[in-house]
Structure formats: C-alpha cells, structure tokens
Amino acid sequence: MxxxxxxxxAESLSKASTAVFRIGTDAHLYxxxxxxxxxxxxxxxxxxxxxxxxxxxxxxxxxxxxxxxFFPQVVKNVASQSLEVKKLVYLYLLxxxxxxxxxxxxxxxxxxxxxxxxxxxxxAWALRAMAGIRLHVxxxxxxxxxxxxxxxxxxYVRKCAANALPKLHDLRMEEHASAIEEIVGLLLNDHSPGVxxxxxxxxxxxxxxxxxxxxxxxxxxxxxxxxxxxxxxxxLIGILLRYVIAKHGLVKESVMFSLSSKDxxxxxxxxxxxxxxxxxxxxxxxxxxELAKMIFQCYIEGPDEYLSRSSSTKMVAPKLDASQYxxxxxxxxxxxxxxxxPLLWSNNSAVVLAAASVHWIMSSKEHIKRIxxxxxxxxxxxxxxxxxxxxxxxVFAKAMPSLFxxxxxxxxxxxxxxxxxKALKLNILSSIATDTSMSLIYKEFQDYIRDPNRRxxxxxxxxIGLCAQRLPNTAALCLERLLTLVRQxxxxxxxxxxxxxxxxxxxxxxxxxxxxxxxxxxxxKVIIQLVRSLDKIKVPAARAMIIWMLGKYCSLxxxxxxxxxxxxxxxxxxxxxxxxxxxxxxxxxxxxILLCIKGEDILTVRKIWSYVIELAECDLNYDIRDRSRFLxxxxxxxxxxxxxxxxxxxxxxxxxxxxxxxxxxxxxxxxRFYLPGSLSQLVFHAAPGYEPLPKPCSxxxxxxxxxxGAAKSDSDEEDTDTSGPLDEESAxxxxxxxxxxASGNISGSDESVxxxxxxxxxxxxxQISDTGNVCENQNVGATSGTEAFxxxxxxxxxxxxxxxxxxxxxxxxxEQSRVRRSSARITIGNxxxxxxxxxxxxxxPANGNGLKVNYSFSSDTSTISSHLVCxxxxxxxxxxxxxxxxxxxxxxxSKSSDSTDQISSPTENTLKFHVDxxxxxxxxxxxxxxxxxxxxxxxxxxxxxxxLPLKLALFCxxxxxxxxxxxxxxxFVKPLAIGIEDFRDKExxxxxxxxxxxxxxxxxxxxxxxKGSNSLTEDKFLVICETLALKMLSNANLSLVSVDMPVATNxxxxxxxxxRFSCEILSNSMPCLITVTVxxxxxxxxxxxxxxxxxxxxxxxxxxxRVVNFLVEPSVTxx
Amino acid sequence: MLQCIFLLSDAGEVMLEKxxxxxxxxRSICAWFxxxxxxxxxxxxxxxxxxxxxxxxxQVFRDxxxxxxxxxxxxxxxxxxxxxxxxADVLNDYFGTLNEDIIKDNFVIVxxxxxxxxxxxxxxxxxxxxxxxxxxxxxxxNKALSIVTGSNxxxxxxxxxxxxxxxxxxxxxxxxxxxxxxxELVEEMDAIINRDGGLLKCEIYGEVQVNSRISGFPDLTxxxxxxxxxxxxxxxxxxxxxxxxxxxxxxxxxxxxxxxLMSYRVRELKSTPIYVKPQLISDGGTCHLSVLxxxxxxxxxxxxxxxxxxxxxxxxxxxxxxxxxxxxxxxxKKTCIWSIGQIPKDKAPSMSxxxxxxxxxxxxxxxxxxxxxxxxMGVALxxxxxxxxDLKNEPGRFxxxxxxxTRAGQFDVRS
Lengths: 1119, 415
Known about the structure:
The complex is a heterodimer.
Chain A (H helix, E strand, L loop, with lengths): L10 H11 L5 H5 L6 H5 L4 H16 L8 H6 L6 H14 L4 H4 L3 H8 L4 H13 L6 H11 L5 H16 L6 H12 L4 H14 L4 H14 L5 H19 L1 E2 L3 H6 L18 H22 L2 H9 L13 E2 L4 H10 L8 H14 L9 H7 L4 H17 L1 H4 L14 H14 L5 H12 L4 H17 L4 H17 L9 H18 L5 H9 L7 H13 L6 H15 L6 H17 L4 H17 L4 H20 L2 H19 L16 H5 L31 H7 L5 H4 L34 E2 L5 H21 L2 H7 L5 H14 L3 E4 L3 H4 L4 E5 L7 E11 L7 E9 L5 E7 L3 H11 L16 E2 L4 E4 L4 E8 L8 E7 L2 E7 L7 E3 L4 H10 L5 E8 L2 H7 L5 H19 L3 E7 L12 E8 L5 E9 L6 E9 L2 H16 L7
Helix pairs in contact in A: 4-6, 6-9, 8-9, 9-10, 9-11, 10-11, 11-12, 11-13, 12-13, 13-15, 14-15, 14-19, 15-19, 15-20, 19-20, 20-21, 22-24, 24-26, 25-26, 26-27, 26-28, 27-28, 28-30, 30-32, 31-33, 32-33, 32-34, 32-35, 33-34, 45-46
Chain B lengths: L3 E5 L5 E6 L8 H13 L1 H4 L3 E3 L4 E7 L2 E7 L5 H19 L4 H6 L1 H11 E2 L2 E2 L4 H7 L5 H10 L30 E14 L5 E15 L6 E5 L7 E4 L5 H7 L1 E4 L4 E10 L7 E10 L2 E10 L7 E9 L4 E8 L3 E4 L4 E7 L8 E8 L11 E9 L8 E6 L7 E16 L1
Parallel strand pairs in B: 8-23
Antiparallel strand pairs in B: 1-2, 1-5, 3-4, 4-5, 6-7, 8-9, 9-13, 10-12, 10-22, 11-13, 14-15, 15-20, 16-19, 16-21, 17-20, 18-19, 21-23
C-alpha cells in the first residue's frame, strides 16, 4: 500500500511483545520522566546518573514541557568528559539558549576549551553548540572560532564551520559581514567535496549575490559537483545557474529563448503541427507560446516587478536585447551542462529535479529531451516526491507539450495514486495529447469515467472538453462520448441521491458547451439532442445550461428555429417547478427568442412570453421578479417600435452579457510561475526568500575573474556592482566627493517640529552643513563595539589563537564608507497644508435613502486611549426630505469581540484590544439634517484588527443601515518627531528581522516634472521629493524626518534621493521608521525602495505592504 | 532551510520536536495540522506540501508516523521531502521496524540521530554507515549491558574515518575472514490492463541490491550482458559516472553491508506472467462478479503469493464472494482481498459472487480496479542479465552470489 491510513496502527504486533522489546531501552524514561527527582541526579558524580537525568529532561522537552528551570545545573555538566553527557547537554543547551542568555555565558569557556581538543568530534560539537547559541554577546567569539575551524585539518570540522556561518549571519552583525563572506569564499575553495557542499549552502543564506566568490572558482566547482554530497549538489546547482545567467546571460538556443521570442510568423516551424494550419490550431500554438513566454518571464522577474507591471496600465514587458544572450557553445555554459547531466542519474529526486531545471533553462532545444526520462523515472519514488515532480512537469508540459507528448503512457493513472496526483496527471495528459495519441488517451479517459471517485470522473469529463478544444480534429469523437455520457447518467435512476453524479453531468454539459462554442454551426444536431433530453435531465444547473444554449443558438441552422415553439411551450409549462437558475435561464431564453424570431411564430412566442413573465412576476424569489421586470421593460420598448435592427442589437447585448456571466473558465491558469523546483511553484505564491533568476548579464565582465580567477579579484569592485537585494544596505552609500548635509526638519501635518518653521516659504530652503560628523560618530561606535568584545578576551590571547589579524582590512573599509557617503539635506516648506487625506465612502446615498456618509482618517490622536483611531466623518443629506436622529453605533460589539478572540492568534496580538470594550466611542448624535446640509463629526474608533473591517450600524430616521468601516494601517500610528540622529540611532537598534524592505515603482511625479520641464534641473528633484513626501503624508500619519538629495551626480538621475519618516504605533508606542530610497531617472518611473524598521514584526510587514500599495496606486490629482 | 522537525504518532500526539534554527516553531502548529487532517481527511493527508498561516509544512507519512518539517522561507521542497524520507529510512534501519512505541522507547537515539543528520536546517551526515559509527544502533548486547551495569553509551568517542575521506559511504576498514558479495536483482512489474483486457502499459522497475562483505577498500566492477534493455537508471553515489557513460560498466567502491547500488527501468514489456480477468455484470439491483486468474506466460519458476485485491464500490451494500482456491476476505473500508498463494497446475483459480447494490440503483455505473500481487523467485522478468563482477584492486579470492526476484508493483487490472 502506498498510503497506509493514519488510523491503521502497527500496534498489533508491537503491543503484545512490548514487554520483551522495551527492556534495555529508554522506554521508562519517556513514559515517566519525572518519577524521580531530576535535580540531584544532575549533580551526581557518576556519568551514568547524569545521563539518565539528561535523558529525562530530553523526554520532557520531547513531550513539550518547559524544563528551562534546570538550566544552571545542566550547564555545569558541559565540563563532563563523557561524550554522551556532552551530546545530551548540547541538545538541552541549544533548545533553551535564547531563553537563558545569562546562564549560557557560563558555558562559553568550556566550548573554547573543547575547541582546542585533539578529537575532531569534540571540536565540531563545541563549534556547533557555540554557533547554535545565537547570542549577540558571544557572536564575535563564535566568529573567531569559525574562522579557526574553517582551517581545521578535519573535514568534518570544516563542514561544521560552513554550517555555522548562516547561524552567525542570522545575528545580523553588519560589521562582521565581510569577514563571514570571506570564510564562505575560503570554504568554497576547499578541496574536500563535503565541505564545498556545506559552503554552498552557507553561500545561499549569507551572500547569495556575491558572485565574485563563484567566479573565482567556477570551473573547479563544476568539476567537483558530482562528488559533492547530494544535499550540497541541490544547492550548488542553483548557485552555478544563477552565476552563469548573471555573468553571461541566457542561452540563445534554449527553449526559453526560442519559445519566448518566437514571433507569429515563425509558428509553422513548431513541431507537430506543420501540416495543419487551421486557425484554431494556430491559436492554440499561439497560446502555448504565449504561456511559455509568460513562464520564462516570471523566472527572471521578481514579485515586485510583476506587481508593478501588472498594476501599471501598459502591460509592456521589459524586452531582453540580444546582448543579454549567450550561446550554448560558450565554454561556461557547456561546462555547466556537462557537469549537471550525470546528476540526472542521481538517486535523490531533489538532485534530479535541480539538474533538470538547469537544462530546462540553459540547454539547447535539441538536448533538452534528456531531462524527460529522468523526470519520469523519479515518478516511481515516494508519493510525496511524485507529487512535487508532477507539479513541475505540469509547467514544463504546458510550455512545451512536444517534450512529454511521446510519453503520455507514463501519466496513465494507477489505482493507488492519491486524488491530487490523479488530477495532476489528468491535467498533464490533456495538455500533451496530440492527434495521434488522442485515440489512446481518449480510451483511457473512458475508463476513468467509471472510477469510483466521482470527483475524479468529473475532472476527466472536463479534461475531455479541454482536449477537444486543443485538438479540433478529435472534437467530434469527444462530443459523441460526452453525449452518450449525458444520456447514460440520467438512466441510472434518481440522480440526486448520488453524490458526485451531479457533478459529472454538469461537467459533461459544460464540456459540450465549450466544444460547441468553437464551431457552433457544425454541431446543430448536438444542440437538438441536448434539448430533447431536457425532460430527462433533472439537475438544475445542467438544465439551466441547456436552456441557455437554446437561447444562444436559437437562430442557428435549419432545425433549431423550427423546434423553438414546442420547446418554449414545454419550458413555460414547467416553469413553476423549476429551480432558481433554470427559471432565470427560461426568462432569458424566451426574451432572446422573442427578439430574433420572425414570421408568424412571433405571436405565439409573445403569448408564451407574457405567460412566463406573469408567472415570474409573482415568483417567490426576488431575483426572478427583478429579472422579469427588467426584461419586460427592455423588451416592451423594442417590441413596440418593431425596429428589427435595434432589437437585434439588443438581443446581441443580452447574448454577450450572458456569455460573460456563464462562461466557465476553460482552464485556470494563474499567470504567475516560479522557478522549477522551488517551493513557491508549489504553493502558488512567492514564499519569503524566493529569488527569481538574476538579471541576465547583470555582472560586469572583468578579465580578472575569468572562471579560474588566478588572481584574487578585488572584491570591492564587485561589491559595488552587485545589484538587487543588496541595495537596501548600500543605498545610503551612493558615492560622491563632497560631504554636504543640511540639517532641517520638515513638519508633517502636525507641525510637531518647532524651530525651523517655513510656513509661507514656497521656495524650498537648502541648507548645507556637514554630515560627515554623524557618519564618523557611527563608525567610531562600531569600532568601539568591537573593542568592547575584545575586552571580553584579552586581545593578545585572541590574536595568538587566531592566526592572522583581520583588523586592518576592516579599518580600510570603514574609511571607504566614510568617503562615499554624501548628500544634501533639504527642507520642504508648507507641505503640511497640502496634505489631503484620502476620503472613503461609508454609505452611498443610493443605499442610504439619500444619506451620504464619507470618512477620512484624521491625523489627530485621541487623548482618551491610545488604542483609538480618529476619523472625520462627513454626513450629507442628498435627499429632499430632512433627516433626524442620525447616529453611528457599534451594535454588536460583544459578539464581534468574541469572534476576534478566536481569530487572533498569539502572534497577531499587535492590535488586539481589550475585548470587553466597544469598538466605538459613542458619537454625538445629529438631531436633524436638512436637505443639502452637511454635518461633521469626529469619531474615535477601536479597530479590532489592523486589516479587518469593522461592522457598524448607522441609524437614521429610525432606520438601520449596516456599514463597514475599513481600517487603514497608515493611521494606526502617530507622528514621532525626532531628529536625524535619533532616527539613525533607533534604526541601528532595529536591524535584521526587524527590518523589511520592498520596492515598487512610483510614477506620480512624472506629470509634475513634465509640467515644469523648463525650469532648472534642481527643481526636478524637489518636485520628486514633494510628490513623494505628499503621497506618504497623505496616506499615513507620519512625521517627515529628513530629505537627503544626491549631490553632484548626473543631473537627470534621481538615484540616491532618500526620505525618512518616523512614527510610533498607537497601541504600544513602539517606534516605526520608514526610509524611502529612490532610484532611476527624473522623468521616468522611479524605483522606490521602502524600508520599515519596527519591532512589531507583523505590524511592520503589514505597514510596509500598505505603504508600497499606496505608492504604486496612481494618485487622485492633487494638483 | 528546515526550521523544525516534528514526529507525530497516528493519534496526532507530538512524540518529538527538534528545533533546528533560532526561530523556534511553536508546537501549536501540530495541533493545527492535526485538526486539518481530521476535518479534511485523506485529501489533506496526501498533500506533501501544505502552507499554513505561519509556516510551510512538508509531510511524509511512514508506518503510522507522520514526519513534519516546517519552514518559513523558500527552500527546495523535494530536498525537505527527501530528507524526511531519509530520516524515516535511517530510523527504520536502526530499529528494524518503525512504529510509535519504538520511537518513544528510543527517543534519545532519535534525538542524537536527528542532531547528527541535520545542522541548522541543512543535512549534515546522512550516510547510514557513517551514522552507525557515530551513534551506535541498539542491539542485544547493549541492552543486556544496560540492564546489568545500568549504563551504556551509544555515542561514539571518535569520528568515523569515512567523514574525512572522499567516499563518505565506506566505513573505516572492515575486516572479514570470508570475503563475499551478493548481488540481487529485485524487480517490480508495473502494469495497467484496461477494461477490454488490453495491456496498456507494462514495465519493470528494478533495483540492484548488493550485500558487500569485503575487507579493505575493494574496487568493484559490475557489467551486464544486455545493458541496452535499460531505459533509464539511477545510481547510488558510489557509482562512477564516466565508466557508465562510455562502456555501461558499473564501477564503484561499495559501502559495507546491504545497499541499493542502482535502480533501473525497463519499458514496454510485451506480456505479463499471469492474467487476471474480472467480469462484472450488473442488472436489476445486483451485480455478478467473477474473477479468473491463470498463468499466461510461464516464467519457468513457480509463481507464488498471488493476491487479488480490490475496493468494493461505494454503492455496494453487501457482498457474498466465494473462490475455488485460496481465501477471500473483506477487510475494513470495503477492501476485498483474495489470497491465492500458488496457482495450482490442474485448475484455474476463480472467484465469484453476488454484490447487492444500494436500493434505488438499477445497476452499477462505477467499477473497481483490481490490484494484483505475485512473486517469482529466481527470475528477472526484464531479461536483464549480469555478465560479471570483478574485484579490481585486491586480487584475493572472494565469493560471489547472484539472485533474482520479480514481484508485482503497481499491477492494475481495470474492470
């Protein structure tokens, strides 16, 4: 059995013989870990007793108990000589290290001692434990240890050193980043394959874009690849692929290029359809190549680019020019393909898939076939991996059906497959079927329809429809089968009693409908057959669809128009007994027929029409009553004037409208694809940390690191050139010679900063002063920080322990960064008065009997409670009668608060309020509102969650309206007036996991810039600053801290422009810092990278998303 | 990279948690997982990759134990799945079988193994032979010792030499008085026979299993007389790629003991050794079922352990089945299994009986597939033949043994 059920136990045998087997195991420790007093055992003299105590603690950990209170006693045992005790202590220690940082420090000395042990196992374990503790305090010590172990004679220890690097990197020690990367480079250069594998893994988590490290060793890494351990292979393959693309670009001969750049004229060359040039086939080929294009574009394009592209009106994709392509005769590409192809024989399916992905992207079209067999072979491994591989094959097959077309038999379904796997196989089959293979596949489908799993049977029916649409030659055959199925299904008795049977029938009719839609005129008989079966088919949805088809094709061919009257009479007769959907379709169809019918029948049809309308008007369902009134109104005018043309156009409209409403999405393609073999590809969204392929040729070509890299290429040059995700760190380093700064504060809407008031000063004020000091101070801080740790260990012993000093290199770097940083700081005047908060509609006059209620978030903050958000609500009477007693209340706060209690998980307690409080501070009632009059009210609202809307009740004239108040996370904060130094200080305390960055495209400024294009270039920058600041301040309650402008760079280049905002979260007064950095040319859309530093991770992330969303959103003109 | 591994019993109890990174994963995620598994049933349990609100979860189910791996960031999903499978394999290898009690009884070893196998979410030592030298598997001597002395250590004091060499699968110099190598071809036949009795697909999935007990560092070569029948292959890491690419020769330094040297696939076989002909005639609220089994192509050896298994369709109320040979059992979840054993020479085994269809249904419209099981000792049905096995570097005498076995894999007969 592939899937033994969860319920099935293997206990039968084991339980009986438990008594025998359990003797001598640790069973009693797991069952009753606390049946003896653990504490004294830990202090015992005997290792065996210590062991037992530690095992008991481990059992408690395994069972989810918190036993951190034993920490001090356990730590003492780290000195034990017994390796088993050591191992157990380490296991315990690492589990609780973060909880008990102070006690952990007691153990550091022992680790240090163990690091000098002669036994490599002891050294490795000590290193693993030390790095695994993850405390900032000891991070520098751990780094020194790793540096030492990276040169250890034992392979195992070096491997552990490589694994320790990501642990150190997690601590975000910016000042040591280069040292860590250096070790990564060292270990990548190791001669032992085992170490290289681990180093590759470290590379991806520490410095995935530092390709200079790869460039140096590229050829050697390729050669060593087959000997690297399987897990390392998976990672290393990915790194090499990224490097080649970044360095040399994509391959001209690859599928990726040929499919995505194929223009319409070349289509005939495509494999299987050379002979037939029918329109539909042509269309299908076109969609395939479009899909392929989409897929490959997604590989290169990050989620942010995708979002900004889809949100902007023009869907023009960035074109890759020919210079970004290389040929597969390129040595570098050749080596990559050569070294990965034997890996297709790997026993590890993850390696096979990783190697196949490289070939998929880089291999030439002729050679790509070699990935097919290995991928299909992997399908024979565990069901979990089978699922993953099938998901990937599905995408390959969609982009290039010819690849898998000959192997259709491998996708035939086995009875042991799970439903997910069956569905995937079916999907693949329907996308690779060809005219020749279709007859066999089709026979196979017929077997599937008889499968006991009816959901799967329904999927099969849908797949038949898809195949028929893809391969018009087989449509007739498919259609026939579907029709027999429809006939069969209703023969099998009372269909409603069977679950799933309905689904099969409905799916069959949907498929028939979509096939007819391709060429309606040739399927007239099918329509007649379907209509004839109406009195036997009982499923409402199926009936509704058949009736709809009658209306849609009522004027088709010869026979259909002749049978219309009879059918209509029949439908009118059974109208009352129909279900809702069928009734609606009877109404529509009758209307359509009425419009297009000619000759003497028209009178009969009218009679039927009025009969049906009469019935419908007194139907119990309001939808039907509405529809009947609507149709009656529309048609009555038309029928009276007898304008044939007009009537036709009207019917046309109804027709087309219905098509939209009823059309079944032929195939749900979500137009987002991720790299093959990635997690994102399986879960259909970009998982955190997902990186698309690097931009082709984004690495500059330097002779120095020409894949052997004899000389050590200067990493500095590379560093500045690496683009992409590193930007967030290097954004402030935009270089220039002078160091100019202006101090100045820009007040937001709240005028929180006094001192530098610039109310009427329309011209911005540029003050120039020196920021050099600030930077210097920072650097001094950093170095003093490292000195602080050096105090922990005497410098001498440290240096003697470590072979070479690394200080000098660090020093020079600091100096460099000091030179680079420069910008001018400016002040933007009177921006506060120009801030216009966005207005939302709470109640539309159409829904509120003429009462219009709008609201906007106010920048004021409540004095009553910090949890309250201020809103300005504007009531307007748009009706002709006066209104009285208008009030907005939270009717069911008790109920809603209960539900939030359930919803909010412990991690989401950011804005979880005391649930026993109402969501609204009672509003002052508006006694009366005359027509045309408006009234303003301030509202204090307690949102339960920063994303979920709040349901409120609005009373007016004693009538109740339910309204929804949508929160805006931008106003869950209040401005925090701080200076730039404060800002920097706070920012430095919120590194690593408290920092989130996203980028987006900003276009608002273009209009403004173009408007004043004659003025000085200086102004362009200001316009950008202003629009950006205005946009930020209008959408969130922030305080503008500083605006930094790049100085002496290209006049048209806005890169380096940097705005800083600050605020604090209302509920807990935690600061939240926003840095907006601009890149791009003044007159083009700018790439804006937004960075949020905030201790509340979830709030910070949501806040960042909100900021990015409103920045992308085109602005309502505030000109 | 993985952040945490949980082992769940088949009652949903968290037996073990092993945190792998600084971002601790709360075990409440297991409660969430189990709730979903209970409420959504099979369709959830068969999903290998799940995205919850906070984590991505990979699940592998083995012998009643659910292995969960959690991560929050992008990582190759197959890597996680393969790793969890490897953990299950290693545990199975250590304890002989795998079940809830065994995990609980040996939880210390499981912890030590996990700690050795994965470091910071990235696999560290996964070679079974190296692991066995760092953490000793439980054995009778150890157990007895622990009863007598009350103490035993299953943690090695020294690092296995293999971790330092470039062949991590080979343990440090084993010594045998009799050098011997056994090579076994284990083949599984996958076949689909459609409703009309046509053979849609028939292929062999085979493994070359080697049990090597040779002293020192032997360098072996294995060649086949007819390697051309192989459609595709996958190798143990010890196999060198070059000799295979050029001459289709397997050249390798074997791990010590039992291991899977390669797996292969042979496609498009022309016939199956036995035939199974099911027939269902349904009318008037009942359904007459008969299944005939017999030898189609005599492989020359006895075919034994023949079974036919199928799932009764959901609309069947009762079934009364009898056979002229072997026994028929109806198990839980309407699974019906007919154990035939050896096919007798004198008669063709058959099973027949009446199925009663749910009231209101005239006839059956869904039909089960029959899964066939069999075993043939001494034959590799793919026709693959081992040519010779040579020991290159150590010219000493050694004993070679060859065996073959074919059994049914996914052998489906549709009705």
